[in-house]
Design a protein that fits this description.
Number of helices: 11
Radius of gyration: 23 Å
Number of strands: 18
Oligomer: single chain
Distance between the termini: 33 Å
Strand order of the largest sheet: 3-2-1-6-11
Shape: globular
Order of helices and strands: EEEEEHEEHEEEHEHHEEEHHEEHEHEHH
Length: 432
């Protein structure tokens, strides 16, 4: 890949909007050339609520990224999450009349994926991602890679991730109003996994928990591939709002107190430490104990994050296949002792995931933070996708520049499980 070819990831989050510009260096590593970060004020629970504010935030983030990278941004790869994301399992089968004599071809499996794209969905929903989960041949053999085997009946099980069409269009509209094109839209947990999960973890089975400001994104990888995804419509902001409500203070002050004094485990708090809340709006100053603050945080984390995660794991079918443990990432993962709490509650070894898979050594310490895992995963996705498209393209086909505004909407990687279908071209083209 040419070093001059530039790619851009854009993470439109509840608390922040981040743009990252980069390319693949000579060693094949993702190298960041610059980034821009600004406050997000038009997004709630991962959903765009105010178009004007979101467009303004995107523009500011783009401007900073362009200045730092000295590159002109024309198109981006955006992430998508939010409470509108739904996950459902579908079954599809094909009968092969000569199956006893011929092997299963990649084209046959691709046709099954294409058939899945045409399933009937409720009004207003669009497919974001199709994740092949497993295949059963002749009702006898279960496999992850059916290509090369023989059989008369192939049954495929697919997890189909859908989203609200209007929410998808909002992302495209906001980016377009910032005078930038959308190259592709990617499910955020998939992007995060690219940035912080090792091949060994994905092979053994790993649960990725990405705690953002407005949502908590869940992804399960097994035998090297994403097999399940879900979104919890709560993140770190609900903890902040609980502190603000109970202590009758502003959200900004509550966030500061949470970061400075907060912990998820009451026993880890300083029982003797008293937090003085400064006077504001004519009210008298207040005092709360660090122990009491820990109780507030613990209660909310249990109710809004841990309990839903337990339910998701139970329903996923992969509860007993997570030998790789848990990787906790996102800005919410930096809350003190949340790693220890999740490890205890879910009875799995847990680590904090940072963007350290496939990135150059020049990546700044500022970006080596869990809060940047998603946007750096988007950047990596863009590079890997374009590389794979070139490998699969005819020799005579000229190389395309992904940052020149052409909207591509299909991603193919090695193996059937890495073929992630993302967005429909006609949806992008029809968006005002």
């Amino acid at each position: 890949m040419e070093d001059s070819e530039i790619f851009v990831g854009l993470d439109i989050g509840t608390t922040k909007i981040v743009t990252v510009v980069g390319h693949a260096n000579e060693d094949g590593k993702v190298e960041v050339l610059g980034y821009g970060k600004t406050e997000s004020t038009g997004v709630q629970h991962g959903l765009i609520r105010n178009i004007i504010k979101t467009v303004d935030g995107i523009k500011k983030s783009l401007e900073i990224a362009q200045e730092h990278s000295n590159e002109q941004i024309e198109s981006i790869y955006a992430g998508i999450a939010g409470r509108h994301i739904k996950s459902s399992e579908y079954k599809h089968e094909i009968k092969r009349f000569n199956g006893k004599e011929t092997i299963i071809q990649q084209e046959e499996i691709d046709k099954m994926l294409q058939d899945m794209e045409g399933i009937l969905l409720p009004a207003g929903e669009k497919i974001i991602t199709i994740i092949p989960q497993r295949f059963v041949i002749d009702n006898e053999r279960e496999t992850n890679e059916p290509v090369g085997e023989m059989g008369e009946l192939v049954i495929g099980y697919f997890q189909i991730i859908t989203g609200d069409e209007n929410e998808i269009k909002k992302i495209v509209r906001c980016v377009n109003e910032a005078e930038i094109n959308v190259e592709d839209i990617i499910l955020e947990p998939i992007a995060s996994g690219l940035a912080c999960l090792s091949d060994e973890e994905k092979k053994r089975g790993v649960l990725l928990i990405d705690i953002g400001g407005g949502t908590t994104d869940i992804a399960i990888y097994y035998q090297g591939n994403p097999v399940f995804s879900e979104v919890i419509p709560f993140g770190g902001n609900v903890i902040t709002k609980d502190i603000a409500s109970i202590c009758q203070i502003t959200d900004d002050l509550a966030e500061t107190i949470k970061i400075k004094y907060g912990t998820c485990i009451e026993e880890k708090s300083n029982r003797n430490n008293i937090i003085t809340i400064p006077q504001f709006y004519g009210n008298e100053s207040k005092q709360i104990s660090e122990q009491y603050l820990a109780k507030i945080i613990y209660t909310r984390v249990q109710e809004s994050i841990i309990r839903p995660i337990k339910t998701i794991i139970e329903h996923s079918g992969y509860k007993d296949k997570l030998q790789g443990g848990i990787v906790l990432t996102g800005g919410g993962s930096t809350l003190r002792h949340i790693k220890e709490l999740i490890q205890y509650e879910l009875s799995k070894p847990t680590r904090i995931g940072k963007p350290d898979i496939g990135f150059s050594h020049s990546l700044s310490n500022n970006l080596r933070h869990p809060m940047y895992v998603t946007v750096l995963g988007l950047l990596k996705y863009a590079i890997l996708k374009t590389e794979k498209e070139r490998e699969q393209a005819p020799v005579s086909k000229p190389k395309k520049k992904n940052n020149k505004g052409k909207k591509s909407t299909t991603n193919s990687e090695n193996g059937i499980f890495k073929k992630i279908e993302t967005f429909f071209t006609n949806l992008l083209e029809s968006t005002p």
